[in-house]
Write a structure and sequence with these properties.
With 494 residues, the chain is of the alpha+beta class. The longest helix is centred in the C-terminal third of the chain and has 25 residues, at 373-397. It is built from 17 helices and 23 strands. The strands form 7 sheets. It has a 7-stranded mixed beta sheet, with helices on both faces. The protein has a 6-stranded mixed beta sheet with strand order 3-2-1-5-14-13. It has a two-stranded antiparallel ribbon with strand order 4-7. Strand 15 (257-262) and strand 16 form a beta hairpin.
């Protein structure tokens, strides 16, 4: 028997199957083969059509069944990971009312900042552990103010993963970690935030029913079965945002280890057992997947860099290079510091780690007589790595002391230049694991009975692929980082 895992990203959807008892991956597919479109009708906006998500999930399920020869009868549970902070609105019939406003959309920044001031910084820090910022609650308020006819028809709001579970089951539900990522959760009282609902004028009836992160959340209904190719009554056993799920995939449940990813966006996700929110305007604090299952309760501190992999992909496309391996080889030919070129990788909307400023991406100090595309590629990899190190400095100021960093093998951490830069500056090792968010979501179905020991053993015994160890001679890296940081701070203070 097998569990199915879905990882709904903003560029693609990955679907995996793992064995029920061993957690061994038996297949993974990606849909679509190119990339899903992001609609930007105005500057700073980012939307996707949830119908596209569902279409690619159904196609992917059919594809993985064909690839593995596994029948729908052998699939006994579904786990869902999804892009965080999105907003999906449906009417009483479950009909979509507009495209989803996704995580990197920055239209609600001002709304969130105003809420932070009006509610009060201390109250937001002590109860929400966050500024309302540009998250789901603020996006819903934007719809209320700017699209009143859409809002009036709205029955429920959902996060992207809630919507996928709804398409399987016909039932609308969410989780406490989901509500916390939308900034709807009061951590101090451990309940729905009446403060946010009241300030934004959001009706409590719009909040979906809350279910546990692990356990039978819903079952596939007749319509969901017909469209997805799964059996009726197949249970949805898990859902979580992509970054908490990435941490789960890397066996990061407790303080000490940090889960990192550098895909379309870059993320550092650390676990804490305190309600400290010193850097609440720059660091996100969410209920982790095991929140409520442990004492003290686990909080995930998430620091996001929007413009990481998307910048690297932009360079690949616009420099006319065929693949990332070629880019990495070109970068390795250039010395540390890229001969003075500085890349600030912040071109994908407002950056929360920069106090929600949108400074764009910057490529500085190019000399047409000396520099080549190899220099630009090296500077881009270093710039993204430097942004990670800058983020770690923010996490440290918020009380996080990293012991080790864990990352999957399907993103920028595969680049030696990128990983060596981070390890040299932080003097911490990076452990690389052969896993993905989709595999993690499938394996998370194992946890509906609370078997954490078996789950952890599967990852630590079978998935570890390699470790990047810090270079002791790191003076060149330190010099290059200081130059990068000085350039960034000059731009921020301009």
């Amino acid at each position: 028997m097998f569990y199915l895992g879905i990882d709904l990203g903003s560029s693609s959807i990955k679907i995996a199957l793992v064995e029920q008892h061993t957690g061994k991956s038996v297949g993974i597919v990606k849909m679509p083969q190119d990339e899903m479109p992001i609609y930007a009708p105005q500057k700073g906006w980012a939307e996707q059509d949830p119908e596209d998500w569902w279409k690619h999930i159904c196609t992917g399920i059919e594809s993985i069944k064909e690839q593995t020869g596994i029948t729908k009868e052998a699939i006994i549970g579904i786990g869902i990971a999804y892009q965080m902070h999105g907003l999906v609105l449906v009417d009483h019939n479950g009909k979509l009312l507009r495209k989803a406003i996704i995580w990197c959309d920055s239209r609600a920044v001002t709304i969130g900042n105003n809420a932070y001031t009006a509610i009060g910084a201390k109250k937001c820090q002590s109860t929400l552990l966050n500024s309302p910022a540009n998250f789901t609650a603020s996006k819903l308020k934007w719809v209320r103010e700017n699209e009143p006819k859409v809002y009036a028809k709205s029955y429920k709001f959902m996060l992207p993963g809630d919507y996928i579970a709804f398409r399987f089951s016909g039932t609308i539900k969410t989780t406490v970690p989901g509500l916390s990522e939308g900034i709807f959760w009061n951590f101090k009282e451990d309940m729905l935030s009446e403060e946010i609902l009241g300030y934004y004028g959001i009706e409590k009836s719009m909040v979906p029913e809350v279910v546990d992160t692990f356990g039978q959340q819903a079952v596939v209904n007749q319509k969901g079965a017909a469209e997805s190719g799964l059996n009726e009554q197949t249970p949805v056993l898990y859902r979580a945002g992509d970054q908490p799920n990435n941490a789960l995939s890397l066996n990061v449940f407790h303080p000490g280890a940090i889960a990192a990813t550098a895909g379309t966006s870059g993320v550092m996700y650390a676990i804490t057992d305190t309600l400290s929110a010193k850097e609440s305007t720059r660091v996100n604090n969410f209920a982790h997947v095991n929140y409520g299952k442990s004492k003290p309760k686990r909080i995930g501190k998430l620091l996001c860099i929007n413009g990481t992999g998307i910048q690297y992909r932009w360079l690949q496309q616009n420099l006319g290079l065929s693949d990332y391996d070629t880019m990495n080889q070109l970068a390795q030919q250039i010395p540390i510091g890229a001969d003075g070129i500085v890349v600030l990788p912040f071109g994908n909307g407002a950056e929360r780690m920069l106090e929600n400023k949108n400074i764009g991406s910057n490529i500085l100090n190019i000399d047409f007589n000396r520099h080549t595309k190899s220099h630009i590629i090296r500077a881009a990899l270093e710039g993204i790595a430097f942004a990670f190190v800058y983020g770690f400095e923010i996490l440290r100021s918020d009380g996080i002391i990293p012991q080790t960093i864990r990352a999957g093998n399907d993103n920028l951490f595969k680049s030696t230049v990128f990983s060596d830069t981070i390890t040299a500056l932080l003097q911490k090792e990076i452990q690389i694991f052969n896993t993905t968010g989709a595999i993690g979501a499938a394996r998370a179905c194992m946890l509906h009975r609370g078997d954490y020991s078996t789950f952890s053993k599967v990852i630590m015994d079978h998935d570890h692929e390699m470790t990047h160890f810090p270079k002791q001679n790191n003076e060149s890296y330190v010099t290059a980082y200081k130059n990068w940081k000085k350039t960034l701070e000059q731009l921020l203070n301009h």
